[in-house]
Amino acid sequence: MSKSQMVLGGCNTNLHDQCTTTAGFKESSFPLKYLGVPITASRLTKNECSELLAKIQAKVRIWGTRNLSLAGKVRLINSVLFGMYAYWASIFLLPSEVIDKLTKMCRNYLWGGSEEYKHSPLVSWTTTCLSKNQGGLGVKDFSCWNKALIAKLAWAVASKKDVLWVKWIHGKYLKQKTWWNYQPPSDSGWHWKNMCLIKDLFKQGCSDMEWGKWLNLPKYKISSGYKWLMGGQRKSPWAKIPWARTVIPRHGPTVWILMQHRLSTKTKLSKFLPTIDLGCPLCNREEEDAEHLLFRCDYAKEVWTELGKWWQLPVFTGDLDQITDVLCKLRGKSRTAITYAIFAAGVYYIWRARNAIAFQHLTWPSSKVVWEIKEQIRMRILYLNSISGKYTKQINRILLF
Question: What is the pTM of this model?
Answer without folding.
Answer: 0.85
